[in-house]
């Protein structure tokens, strides 16, 4: 196995060679993200043996109780990336404001938004959790560091997005706009090794992932869609199987490989949605699209949404292309035509064309 293994560092250097204008700064930043992931993984696998479980007694900016591992992951990523000289500014789900580089550290030209430990409430039960990150180019000028404006960029401006899933194995998945690749951590070697080259998500899945405990608070359109997924219909492969871990990274990773749709709609208690646009929705949407999938807030492409605040929330419908498009049609009240089409697949070629992917917006180049 090891004679053919490609490490994450080797893979990044190979990708760097494809860009003659590359300076190595971007590759260095990704290597620092890899280092932070290794440090977090070291503590996660010791959970229950060392004093990393439980709550700190504090609340974060969202009013949520902070886990000790939340704080550790936030501090680790902030310190590792902040000391590199590649960043202009950072933003974390756990911090109320932007995070400038430490004094005395050179100011770089990249921006990182990150969720240090998604699903951390599951760690006490040994359930998969993850880190999500998004890399953007700086848009402001000056030597004093980045500004809020640098963090508040739409997802179509991302130059890289990825996640690390900590669980039975530790997997790092990322994209720079040239496909999606996954690496599994080999603890004896101490390296992430290429294990999922060029991931392509199926156009249609057979899995739906949603917290149905919120069913009573959903809109009628959302209820109709989930009810439709559970109906018996052999010709359309229904009913779908329900699979919900409650850790976004774990649910997304499974559906990315197997196909399906992840649903976190708005409801009467959270009319603007629950997930954070910058730290969760945008980076995973970028990965989904690069793997051939789609991501929507029910009306618009996630990557086209312009953030107005650091901790802006959004509904999220994420996964296989056809599943996301069908969900949109239910949410927009046009499910009747979809049901007729499914009864007669030849009924409307124009409807089928509307399921095609939206063209991606141009992105900044990576150097």
Task: Report what the structure shows.
The chain has 367 residues and is α+β, with helices and mostly antiparallel strands. The protein is built from 10 helices and 16 strands. The protein has helices at 8-17, 25-44, 68-82, 148-151, 220-229, 248-258, 277-290, 321-331, 335-343, 349-353; strands spanning 55-59, 65-67, 87-92, 110-118, 129-137, 160-166, 171-175, 180-186, 191-196, 207-209, 241-242, 261-264, 275-276, 294-296, 313-314, 316-319. α1 (8-17) packs antiparallel against α2 (25-44).
Walk me through the topology.
Elements: H1 8-17, H2 25-44, E1 55-59, E2 65-67, H3 68-82, E3 87-92, E4 110-118, E5 129-137, H4 148-151, E6 160-166, E7 171-175, E8 180-186, E9 191-196, E10 207-209, H5 220-229, E11 241-242, H6 248-258, E12 261-264, E13 275-276, H7 277-290, E14 294-296, E15 313-314, E16 316-319, H8 321-331, H9 335-343, H10 349-353
Parallel strand pairs: 3-4, 10-11, 10-12
Antiparallel strand pairs: 1-2, 4-5, 5-6, 6-7, 7-8, 8-9, 12-16, 13-15, 14-16
Helix pairs in contact: 1-2, 2-3
Estimate what percentage of residues fall within beta strands: 15-25%
- Average residue-wise pLDDT: 88
Series of secondary-structure elements, N-terminal to C-terminal = HHEEHEEEHEEEEEHEHEEHEEEHHH
Straight-line distance between termini: 32 Å
Tally of extended strands? Answer: 16
Radius of gyration: 20 Å
Strand order of the largest sheet: 3-4-5-6-7-8-9
Supply the number of helical segments. Answer: 10
Shape: globular
The low-confidence runs, each spanning 5 or more residues with pLDDT under 50, are 345-358
**Which class of secondary structure composition applies to the elements?**
alpha+beta
The major β-sheet equals:
7 strands, mixed
């Amino acid at each position: 196995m090891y004679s053919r293994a490609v490490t994450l560092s080797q893979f990044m250097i190979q990708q760097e060679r494809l860009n003659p204008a590359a300076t190595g700064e971007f590759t260095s930043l990704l290597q620092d993200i890899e280092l932070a992931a290794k440090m977090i993984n070291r503590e996660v696998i010791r959970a229950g043996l060392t004093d990393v479980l439980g709550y700190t007694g504090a609340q974060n900016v969202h009013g949520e109780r902070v886990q000790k591992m939340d704080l550790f992951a936030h501090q680790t990523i902030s310190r590792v990336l902040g000391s590199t000289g590649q960043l202009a500014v950072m933003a974390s789900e756990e911090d109320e404001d932007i995070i400038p580089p430490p004094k005395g550290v050179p100011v770089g030209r990249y921006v990182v938004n990150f969720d240090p430990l998604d699903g951390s409430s599951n760690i006490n039960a040994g359930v998969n959790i993850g880190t999500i990150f998004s890399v953007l180019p700086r848009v402001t000028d000056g030597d004093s560091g980045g500004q809020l404006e640098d963090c508040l960029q739409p997802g179509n401006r991302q130059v890289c997005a990825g996640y690390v899933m900590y669980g039975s194995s530790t997997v790092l998945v990322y994209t720079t706009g040239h496909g999606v690749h996954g690496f599994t951590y080999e603890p004896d070697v101490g390296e992430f090794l290429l294990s999922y080259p060029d991931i392509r998500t199926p156009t249609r899945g057979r899995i739906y992932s949603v917290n149905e405990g919120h069913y009573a608070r959903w809109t009628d359109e959302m209820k109709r869609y989930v009810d439709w997924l559970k109906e018996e219909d052999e010709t359309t492969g229904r009913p779908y199987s329900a699979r919900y871990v409650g850790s976004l990274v774990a649910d997304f990773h499974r559906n990315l490989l197997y196909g399906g749709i992840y649903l976190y709609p708005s409801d009467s208690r959270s009319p603007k949605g629950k997930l954070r646009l910058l730290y969760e929705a945008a980076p995973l949407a970028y990965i989904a699209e690069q793997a051939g999938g789609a991501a929507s807030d029910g009306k618009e492409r996630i990557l086209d949404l312009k953030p107005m605040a650091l901790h802006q929330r959004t509904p999220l419908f994420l996964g296989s292309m056809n599943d996301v498009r069908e969900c949109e049609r239910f949410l927009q009240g046009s499910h009747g035509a979809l049901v007729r089409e499914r009864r007669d697949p030849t009924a409307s070629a124009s409807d089928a064309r509307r399921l095609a992917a939206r063209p991606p917006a141009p992105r900044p180049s990576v150097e």
